[in-house]
């Protein structure tokens, strides 16, 4: 039996398969059956989204440059899409899986995603972007290892664990959607879960992780939650930070880490304490009432329960800001390519455009909305990417409803436009994006299709003079950034990935109610060297459903 036949058999059995095809980089094949099930993440039975009967869903575990094929069978009663948070999908925003890029998979149908983790390593995750499905689960981890010939700046750990932490509601996603559609906020989550479970530190839970004394383990920690920042710590142990969202970091040691919405960190933990049980603790930050969960780490052949005395989380966001400033890019380490990360001197590139985004929470016709520079995003019935590709964009959206400079009205009476929020970006421009948070909550933002340099976060309002405080040497290249209350954050990036890319709030409520936009990054050459053609299997909907397909891009 040849490799292809073996792989076809593996797909039929819903097994991940890794093969080489015609000398290409290896392929990873997955088949997912997405269903509802009843679980009790917080001790209360509720409807949860399962993938192959699992929550969290199966881990996608690959190597840099692998090709990933995921055949999704939607067995829910609602349309469905998945996004691959942090995977850059080079030249391939067709696979982004947001309502601005794709028509959703109808109930009872299937769709096959195909993408490459080109020139990437690191820790990421996937989740459903339709409706409020993320509040019901359907998420899972993605880990991308370095190729065999690329040196990694630490010894291979004994094991590699995914730790998906986040806050959780006991209300169903349909109940939560009704709240937002009626104009109300979601309120506070009811608890925290770790890999779908919520230990309470009473010693009654089965161990989630088992360690061998003297060995070192990698924990990939992602905040897949809905509203809150999470602090993570390991009882009696320190954590050596080695990677943030695809970048090797300077290997500082921490007793705890603030992981904001959408963020992923990799830490090394050495089992160097008395052999017994210990708790990994995750708790909400910046909330009046803190929720927490524990996961038990058991030493092999250990003797004794974990101490009920849990390590405390830090207080206040000043501590968190200082921790952010301690994160540094490892300039000498190689990431996905052999050359050192620090060989890219981003601080010496001239900025060609500055976009300042000011956030606002407002009432429109008595209903809560969130806006960027006076525009609250609404997904059109025809995905923006498809409308643009078919030459029907003017019938679906307008470019540049927001301006690069924006000052909110002094009387607080913001005039808000509800519409698709699409910014026309110039291919390969090096841009500066400023986030100003005038509210009282910590915000977190993700940019799809790119990584960026998180060069500064400071209290107050941004002015051009603040550039003097930027870290232009070793800021971490990543895809998410937090913005503290009454503060601003600055990122630098090159729009070098042609396609349509979502800039979004990682808060489920804010994202659903308008806190997002799309950057349209069009290559003037319309060449497959810059962007792939629309896949033959792409789903069509809206006004372009019956329009003849445009001529494909050529070399």
Automatic annotation (TrEMBL):
Transmembrane feature ranges: none
Protein origin, superkingdom: Eukaryota
Domain Plastocyanin-like: 34-147, 160-300, 403-525
Position of the signal peptide: 1-23
Pfam families referenced in this protein's UniProt entry, alphabetically: Cu-oxidase, Cu-oxidase_2, Cu-oxidase_3
InterPro entries per UniProt: Cu-oxidase-like_N, Cu-oxidase_2nd, Cu-oxidase_C, Cu-oxidase_fam, Cupredoxin
Family that this chain belongs to: Belongs to the multicopper oxidase family.
Name used for this protein in its record: L-ascorbate oxidase
Organism: Datura stramonium (Jimsonweed)
């Amino acid at each position: 039996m040849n490799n292809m036949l073996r792989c076809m058999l593996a797909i039929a059995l819903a097994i991940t398969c890794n093969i080489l095809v015609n000398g290409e980089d290896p392929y990873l094949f997955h088949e997912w059956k997405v269903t509802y099930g009843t679980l009790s993440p917080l001790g209360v039975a509720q409807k949860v989204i399962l993938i192959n009967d699992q929550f969290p869903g199966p881990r996608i575990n690959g190597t840099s440059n692998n090709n990933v094929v995921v055949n999704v069978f939607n067995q829910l009663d609602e349309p469905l899409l998945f996004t691959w948070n942090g995977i850059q999908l080079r030249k391939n925003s067709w696979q982004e899986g947001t309502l601005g890029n794709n028509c959703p998979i109808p109930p009872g149908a299937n769709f096959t995603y195909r993408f490459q983790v080109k020139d990437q390593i690191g820790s990421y995750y996937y989740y459903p972007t339709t409706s409020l499905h993320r509040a019901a689960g359907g998420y899972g981890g993605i880990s991308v290892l370095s190729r065999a010939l690329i040196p990694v700046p630490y010894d291979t750990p004994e094991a590699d664990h995914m730790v998906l932490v986040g806050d959780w509601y006991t209300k169903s996603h349909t109940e939560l959607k009704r709240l937002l559609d009626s104009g109300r906020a979601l309120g506070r989550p009811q608890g925290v879960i770790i890999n779908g479970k919520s230990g309470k530190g009473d010693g009654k839970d089965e161990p989630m992780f088992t360690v061998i004394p003297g060995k070192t383990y990698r924990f990939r920690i992602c905040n897949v939650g809905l509203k809150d920042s999470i602090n993570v710590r390991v009882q009696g142990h320190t954590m050596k930070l080695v990677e943030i969202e695809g970048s090797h970091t300077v290997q500082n040691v921490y007793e705890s880490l603030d992981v904001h919405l959408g963020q992923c960190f990799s830490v090394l933990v050495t089992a160097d304490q008395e052999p017994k049980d210990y708790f990994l603790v995750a708790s909400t930050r910046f909330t009046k009432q803190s929720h927490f969960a524990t996961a038990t780490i058991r030493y092999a052949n250990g003797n004794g329960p974990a101490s009920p005395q849990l390590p405390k989380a830090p207080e206040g966001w000043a501590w968190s800001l200082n921790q952010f400033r301690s994160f540094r890019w490892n300039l000498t380490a190689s990431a996905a390519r052999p050359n050192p990360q620090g060989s890219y001197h981003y601080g010496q590139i001239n900025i060609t455009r500055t976009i300042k985004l000011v956030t606002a929470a407002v009432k429109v016709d008595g209903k809560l909305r969130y806006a960027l520079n006076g525009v609250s995003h609404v997904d059109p019935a025809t995905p923006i990417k498809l409308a643009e590709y078919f030459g029907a964009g003017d019938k679906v959206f307008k470019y540049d409803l927001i301006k690069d400079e924006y000052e909110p009205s002094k009387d607080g009476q913001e005039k808000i436009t509800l519409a698709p929020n699409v910014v026309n970006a110039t291919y390969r421009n090096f841009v500066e994006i400023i986030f100003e948070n005038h509210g009282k909550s910590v915000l977190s933002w993700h940019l799809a299709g790119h990584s960026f340099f998180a060069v500064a976060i400071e209290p107050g309002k941004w002015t051009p003079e603040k550039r003097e405080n930027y870290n232009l040497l070793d800021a971490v290249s990543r895809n998410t950034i937090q913005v503290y209350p009454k503060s601003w954050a600055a990122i630098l990036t090159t729009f070098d990935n042609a396609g349509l890319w979502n800039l979004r709030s990682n808060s489920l409520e804010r994202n659903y109610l308008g806190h997002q936009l799309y950057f349209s990054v069009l290559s003037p050459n319309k060449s497959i060297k810059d962007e792939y053609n629309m896949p033959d299997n792409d789903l069509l909907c809206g006004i372009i459903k019956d329009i003849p397909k445009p001529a494909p891009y050529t070399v």
